[in-house]
Amino acid sequence: MNPIFLFFHKTGSPPWFYKYSGKLIPWLWAVFLALTVYGLYLGLVVAPADYQQGESVRIMYLHVPSAWMSMMIYGLMAIMGFIALVWRIRIMEVLVISSAPVGAAFTAIALITGSLWGRPTWGTYWVWDARLTSELVLLFLYFGVIALYNSFDEPRKAARAASLMSIVGAINLPIIYFSVEWWNTLHQGSSMGSDGPGIHPSMLLPLLLMATATKFFYGANLLSRARLTLLKQDHRKRWVQDLLSKESH
Amino acid sequence: MSHTPFILAAYLISAVVLFWAAIAPVLNKRSLLRQLKNRQAQMDKTQ
User: Which of A51, A97, A190, A205 has the most CB atoms within 10 Å of its CB?
Assistant: First the structure.
């Protein structure tokens, strides 16, 4: 068999996925911690205050990566949901539903930190601005996917419904991204425009480090959640029984 | 207006949310494995 097909075939097998993802998780956490510590050091200690925003610019090192992650995770959920529905790959269904709480956490952080940045900078915690409102809709979409999955008794039917909702909800992603161009909003434009980043390198480096760290957080947390979901769904199957008897000896 | 309370609140809330997101599957897995082991032990006893 072609090595690429073989890899996908093996990844689709729950016992194989469970075994190898367990080996990968500690490494992902280690990279996340290293990048976060260095990124926070640069962002909180080394980087200067902004000439307009003052010290509150330091909230950006959390807010911007979280906002990027909130959109990226939903986009990935839509792609994985499409693969799950078309090719009926069970691991993809598990990854969709395991991604939703992580995406909801990042969306909540983006909204809260944005609000805490807005008070000293704009003079208000919240405005019904297109960017803020569409990001809030994204949080409700994440909650919707989680609630829909939990409303079914049969896990595979639940995962397929959640996958479908992920695909439909993806319509909100371009709305969030282009909201600052389509409407006259209080929220500033993109930090990483098509003509390069409009940020000084001393601020750009911690921002990129934190953005990379959040990807590793997502990877480690996603795999932990996917392993838990597999255990819950397969607890009567042979591979889980073998695993339990191995652990008890 | 001092920005420090807003910065501290942002970092503290984010740390709590991320820590909870990270720890929740670990705690759930531990509790699930305990349940499954207990069930298996009960089944072994009845057989």
Answer: A97
Which residue, A172, A127, A12, A22, is CA-closest to A80? A12
pLDDT tens for each residue of A23-69 = 999 999 999 999 999 999 999 999 998 888 889 999 999 999 999 99
* Residue B10: partners with Cβ closer than 8 Å, 6 or more residues away: A59, A62, A63, A112, A113, A116, A117
* CB-CB neighbors (< 8 A) of A50 in chain B: none
Contact of B21 with chain A, judged by CB distance below 8 Å, is answered with yes
Domain that holds residue A105: 25-188+200-242
**Among A119, A221, A244, whose Cβ lies nearest the Cβ of B37?**
A244
CB atoms within 10 A of CB A219: 19
Residue appearing with tokens 């720890």: B23
In angstroms, the CA B40 to CA A2 distance is 40
Report the first-to-last Cα separation within chain A, whole angstroms: 36
On whether residue A5 sits in a domain, the answer given is no
Q: What is the pTM of this model?
A: 0.93
> How far is A88 from A91, CA to CA, in rounded Å?
9
Residue A7 lies in a domain: no
**Six-digit token string for A77:** 């959920």
ipTM of the complex model:
0.91
Q: Which chain A residues contact residue B21 at CB under 8 A?
A: 101-102, 105, 221
Based on the structure, what is the number of domains in chain A?
1
Tell me: the pLDDT tens digits for A138-160? 999 999 999 999 999 999 999 99
Residues facing A82 on adjacent strands: none
Which range in A121-135, A174-188, B12-26 is most confidently predicted, on average pLDDT?
B12-26
Residue A20 resides in a domain: no
Record the tokens describing residue A5, joined without a space: 């097909």
